[in-house]
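Researcher: Quick sanity check before group meeting.
Model: Go ahead. Protein one:
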Amino acid sequence: PIKQKLAMTGEVSLTGKVLPVGGIKEKVLAAQRAGVTEVILPEDNRRDWAELEDHIREGCAVHFAEHYQQVYDVAFPKA
């Protein structure tokens, strides 16, 4: 089963590349309000994550992905 309290933002191309998006701060805040404690962000948005205030990043585990396989591995952990 898929990991609970997990959210992802970004776009996935037909070849599996995870593409960056804007509005990371707003998306992370919305996810936290919904009870999400773990997010997957595009690798190219790493700087946006680093620029967030500490109180926003606090309590939220983050994974950065460049390809769909990395997203899959986080969402569906091996038992």
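Researcher: Fine. The other one?
Model: Protein two, sequence then structure:
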Amino acid sequence: KALEAQLLTPDDTNFFRLPPYLLIHLQRFRLVDGVPTKIARHCKVDLRLGLEESANCALRTVPYELVSAISHYGELPESGSYKALVRHT
């Protein structure tokens, strides 16, 4: 429940001008009794994302397409390895 309370929904955030490229960071560790613990919950990430921006007093949807991701493999944030995944289009 505490994790769900921290999540943003589309109604929580409004942008005036969106950047041409968007970087999203998913926090996959949390402190449990002062110890960093990996969140074991699986995430589903769509390949496409549409965000609304307000331009010239009108709302428009700006499309984004997932082209790469970096995944951490390991139980601690200070150790493990990273794998870069890139779509070839």
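Researcher: One line on it for the slide.
Model: The mean pLDDT is 80.
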